[in-house]
Amino acid sequence: MTVRHLMGRPIARAVGHRQGNGKRTSIGAGQAGRSEDKGDAMRDAGGTGRDHAVVAGAGIGGLLAARVLSESFARVTVVDRDALPDGGGPRRGVPQSLHAHGMLSKGFEVLQDLFPGLRADLVARGALVRDVQADVNWFNDGRLLHRAPSGIPCLMVGRPELERYLRTRVAALPGVEIQQRTEVVEPVADPTGRRVTGVRLLRVNAEPEVITADLVVDATGRSNRGATWLRTLGYEPAPEERVDSGLVYVSREYRRRPGDLDADAIVIGASATAPRGGVALSGEDDRWLVTLFGMNGDLPPVDHAGYHRFAQRLPVPDLHRLLERLEPLTEPRLMRTPVSIRRRYERLDRFPAGYLVLGDALCQFNPTYGQGMTVAACEAAALRRCLAERSDDTLAARFFRRAATITDVAWDMSVGGDLRFPFVRGRRTPRVRLLNRYVARIHRAAQSDPEVGRTFLAVANLQEPPQRLMAPAVLSRVLRPRPAPAPGTPARPAPPVAAPAAEHPERTAS
């Protein structure tokens, strides 16, 4: 992972954690509460109603948006064209759900704020909560980051299970309805074209119909038609920034048994000399979810022998050695990643009232950095803060500004990382080259200095602003690193992240 913009603004200011009145929303497991002043929030100072909100898309971003909107709107309708599985399995509209997903520590923090009890509930269902530095073998540029307690928790859970859990919690909120097998054809506007007033829906075996809404949120993900929708409404689409790393990844599940590994996950980043990598994450149902990825035509094969040969070519041998000992449970599944796209809605001069864009529909990242779900969670928290300010006439402008602040950090990290590879098109300024060289030195120092490693992981997990990596205390450690450990020196074991007492029985060494 590389930091392109080390002076970005911290996202905490854009996200916030409390509503404008300082009160927290209380949601017990299996039931939902409302903010105490919701009745007052039903109408802003300008008289705009907050009766009904429609969210297009029931993925992670759409569900988090619905959770936040339920505090301010009497009714929230979430619409998705897929048949949503009761058991939490993969679905057609989210093909990436079969592959490894990362919920960064900042995203995990936001989820727990929005859904009290989430941690204990997911752990009871087989998810793991671990220390991101003590319990994970991180390899950056082929160098093992020094393992030590960091106090930074990470959530290991499959995307289908996480989405199922969030969907169950959101569906239980008063006034929230989730409609499946229903497609949002397009938003509709008032006669002036200045305000979106609803959406045109197409249900299975039914004629199109229009339902009214005071706010429409596009959370349709990578398949979004935002540009087309805006043109239909008479607006220019948002300018885009694109980066194509040529990424292809292939995933497979393996049986997990105690003693497989001295850690609960392996993360091997691609290096400039070896543009391929992989991860193995402990998951629910005693399984390993393994994802291998390559770029620029170097694709992981989908047959058993070829898959293992590709793992053998990674920058370090650790993941290949693990796979050779494991029992496969599924066949390898291939996923070609579309180009990373950032849509700059905050730069538009004209935009309809009553309409927002969130999640992958706003910015889709290179998935090897694990940022998408966390950025969506932070955007939902930012939307919560914007809604608490009451002025709906400027809601879109305020939200897009805050979303841009959140996206800046993650986008610059992933784009900077991609620009290390000569086959990725993009402008490499002297500053980008200098910072990439500095981050390479961070990886060298982090082999032996746990504090450098912790700071890097805190930034990568969006818990700290990137400029922390340039703080004098860190800079001195990076420029004058400790001697690296001798080859073959085992990583120092460390205690787990502190968890509620009820969760400890679920922790089993892997």
Percentage of residues in DSSP E strands: 15-25%
Poorly predicted parts: 1-8, 17-47, 490-498, 500-510
Characterize the largest beta sheet: strand count, sense, and whether it forms a barrel. 7 strands, mixed
The helix count comes to 14
The neighbouring-strand order within the major sheet is 5-4-14-15-16-13-17
Strand tally is: 20
Mean pLDDT reading: 86
How far apart lie the N and C ends?
26 Å
Q: Helical content, roughly?
A: 25-40%
Specify the structural class.
alpha/beta
Shape: globular
| Rg calc | 23 Å
Describe this structure in words.
This protein has 510 residues and is α/β, with parallel strands linked by helices. Helix content is 29%, strand content 19%. It has helices at 12-15, 38-41, 60-69, 105-114, 118-124, 159-171, 226-233, 304-312, 318-325, 372-388, 395-418, 430-446, 450-460, 472-479, and strands at residues 52-56, 75-79, 128-131, 136-140, 143-144, 153-156, 176-179, 182-189, 196-203, 209-212, 215-218, 240-243, 248-255, 265-268, 276-283, 287-294, 333-336, 340-343, 355-357, 363-364. The strands form 5 sheets. A 7-stranded mixed β-sheet has the order 5-4-14-15-16-13-17, with helices on both faces. A 5-stranded parallel β-sheet has the order 7-2-1-11-19. A 3-stranded antiparallel β-sheet has the order 8-9-10. Strand 9 (196-203) and strand 10 (209-212) form a beta hairpin. Helix 3 packs parallel to helix 10 (372-388). The radius of gyration is 23 Å and the shape is globular. The two termini are 26 Å apart. The relative contact order is 0.19. Residues 1-8, 17-47, 490-498 and 500-510 have low confidence and may be disordered.
